[in-house]
Amino acid sequence: MSDTPNGSVDGNHLREVRRRRTFAIISHPDAGKTTLTEKLLLYGGAIQLAGSVRARKNQRKATSDWMALEQQRGISITSTVLQFEFAGHMLNLLDTPGHQDFSEDTYRTLTAADSAVMLIDNAKGVEPQTRKLFTVCRQRGIPIFTFVNKLDRPGLEPLELLTEIEDVLGIRTVPVNWPIGDGNDFRGVYDRKNRRILLFERTDHGSRPAPVEATNLDDPRFERLLTPARYAKLREEIELLDGAGEELDPEKVARGEVTPVFFGSAATNFGVEPFLEEFIGMAPGPAARQSLQGEVSPNEAEFRGFVFKIQANMDPNHRDRIAFMRIVSGRFERDMTVQNPRLGKSVRLSRPQKLFAQDRILMEEGYPGDIVGLTNPGAFAIGDTLYTGSAVRFPALPRFAPEFFAVLRNLKIDRYKQFQKGIEQLGEEGVVQVFYDVNAARREPILAAVGRLQFEVVQFRLQSEYGVETVMEPTSFRHVRWLDGESDAIKTIRWYQGSRRVDDNEGLASGLFDSDWALNYMQEQHPKVQFLEAPPGR
Ligand code: G4P
User: Fold this and answer.
1) Which of 36, 104, 228, 271 could form a disulfide with 400, with the two C-beta atoms 3.0–4.6 Å apart?
2) What angle, rounded to 10 degrees, do the helices at 33-43 and 272-282 form?
3) C-alpha dihedral over 320, 83, 16, 281, to 10 degrees?
4) What is the pLDDT of residue 536?
């Protein structure tokens, strides 16, 4: 038993918390995220699931719902949560959008992850979206593990890759293992900690775990496997790493200063198991989370969780909205009643789900680190805290400053209701931010986005999910600010050209500005009003 400010939890709870690892994979499209996910599931014994990850990716083409846009653009926007076990650990894998235009969404998903795995294509090195997503991880300050993939194909020299990661991303690297050969000659990895050679055997199309043989560098049989030149090079590289390289310090990993690097090939399964084995040892378990009332530890008995993502119409057969909640403390049970302080009322969590693409499994219980899919329509917003016992509130999830603003027009008057509903729901999901000109005769939404692709997604989804056709007219606005202060002071603001008074989708007073100059000018003219970068109180 462990005493905590919110009662005690039993040994089972402590064990469940200790064995959980909640993480996300970040990568540039085509680096092999789907394949690696599949293989993690394969080693986790969820073989049926493993097959369906790819099926799901391919299926998107066929079912042609809004995910078709992802297919066309080679991007991944949907978020899926997968849970699987490996060596006594329970792993929760969160899918993150791969495109930089969705960095805000990625950030929100990462708030629910305790660590990230950065996947890099051996031949391509650090690609633009790896860089963008890495930056988002950095802002979150979570440990980052690196998996260099596709070693079964010729690629960059491993040392060159490490230098590139260090130079481009500004994080120090410590290889946990080292590749033996590459391309067709990729035989396995050298495990630096245990000074072992792990030799892998190919299986047909990597559909079964790769058989592994362990040996050491001095084994003459191993030496004979490689050409003398390759063998000598491997020894040289290992000596170089041991002599000049940095030791793997778990604290530096935890602070995100150093990334442990693994080499492998998801397609052939080489190196996937050694990665998982080390990962579960090094990756942090469910973290405590700061609330406005103090830190909430996963070992507190009272239930606390927060909503980090909402998605409408994930499954065209269900047409519902799912709120994804991360459990921070306590034990989650189906049908439990929790408080939602934003609404000032209690909500019963009936029909909670574990989600796997189109499959939904009813979730009976959950522990800190787990993600629950909640289906209560309209009861949740991104950033909501849900709790039992004494009141608690987690700080709001930060918003990224939008850089693109456009007016959205509905082309068919008879679809106005659907248009309104679509905009409201996509706004709730955080696909874009939505504002309304308070002085305009017609209530037309002005959309604000971090990247232009978000606009395309809105138009595409409005058409495919709500049957609404729209046109988008870019505006010259560049900044949004929320207005805080006496209502009289806000009312008397004179809105010069280049600025416009709007409300956000929750009705909060805001302003749009077309230049730094316009914004600064308004701020100088109205010292009694605060021009905030986020809604007041967030
Ligand atoms: P993504 O989710 O990051 O976009 O990548 P995905 O796993 O779909 O992989 C992109 C391509 O790279 C796929 O080939 C996949 O088979 C291949 N790939 C992934 N891991 C490895 C690896 O370790 N070695 C090699 N050689 N290839 C790998 P594709 O031709 O696009 O699709 P498919 O023919 O496999 O269906």
Assistant:
1) 104
2) 80
3) -140
4) 80
**Best residue among 26, 35, 53, 99 to mutate for probing ligand 1, ranked by most atoms within 8 Å of CB:** 35
Q: How far is the CA of 371 from the centre of ligand 1 (A)?
A: 27
- For residue 242, what pLDDT is reported? 92
Q: In Å, how far are 326, 342, 396, 397, 426 from 382, measured between CA atoms?
A: 12, 11, 8, 8, 12
DSSP-based three-state secondary structure for 123 = coil
Q: Which stretch of DSSP H or E encloses residue 509?
A: strand 509-513
Residue range 189-207: average pLDDT?
A: 86
> DSSP character for 222?
H
Q: How far is the CA of 103 from the centre of ligand 1 (A)?
A: 23
Phi, psi of 465, deg, nearest 5: -100, -25
What is the distance between the alpha carbons of residues 333 and 364, in angstroms, rounded to a whole number? 6
Considering only CA atoms, which of 191, 240, 249 is closest in space to residue 215?
191
Interatomic CA distance for residues 517 and 514, integer angstroms: 8
- φ, ψ of residue 108 to 5 degrees: the values are -60, -45
> What backbone torsions phi and psi does residue 413 show, to the nearest 5 degrees?
-55, -40
**If you compute the radius of gyration of the chain from its CA atoms, what whole number of angstroms results?**
25
CA distance 479 to 516: 8
Residues with CB under 6 A from ligand 1: 27, 29-35, 149-150, 152-153, 265-267
> Cα separation of 229 and 347, whole Å?
67
Which of 17-31, 283-297, 428-442 is predicted with the least confidence, judged by mean pLDDT? 428-442
- pLDDT tens readout for residues 377-414: 778 988 999 999 999 999 888 778 888 999 999 999 89
Q: What is the pLDDT of residues 471-530, one digit of tens each?
A: 999 999 999 999 999 989 999 999 988 999 999 988 999 999 999 999 999 999 999 999
Q: How far is CA 177 from CA 124, 149, 464, in A?
A: 20, 13, 47
Share of the chain above pLDDT 70, in %: 88
Please say if the pLDDT value at position 60 is more than 50.
no
Question: Comparing C-alpha atoms, which of 447, 480, 432 is closest to residue 77?
Answer: 432
Taking CA atoms only, the protein residue closest to ligand 1 atom 4 is 30
Q: What is the pTM of this model?
A: 0.86
Under the banding of pLDDT at 50, 70 and 90, the label for residue 286 is: very high
User: Which DSSP string do the residues of 266-287 spell out, in sequence order?
Assistant: TTTTBTHHHHHHHHHHHS--SP
Q: Examine the pLDDT at 1 and tell me if it is beyond 70.
A: no
What are the tokens at 313?
Answer: 């119409």
Task: Give the span between the Cα atoms of 488 and 508, in whole angstroms.
Answer: 15
Tell me which residue of 359, 426, 456, 373 sits closest to 59, measured CA to CA. 359
CB atoms within 10 A of CB 391: 11
**CB burial readout 404-430, b (16+ within 10 A) else e:** bbbbbebeeeebeebbeebbebbbbbb
Centre of ligand 1 from the C-alpha of residue 33, in Å: 8
Please give the helix or strand (H or E) that residue 18 lies within, else none.
helix 11-18
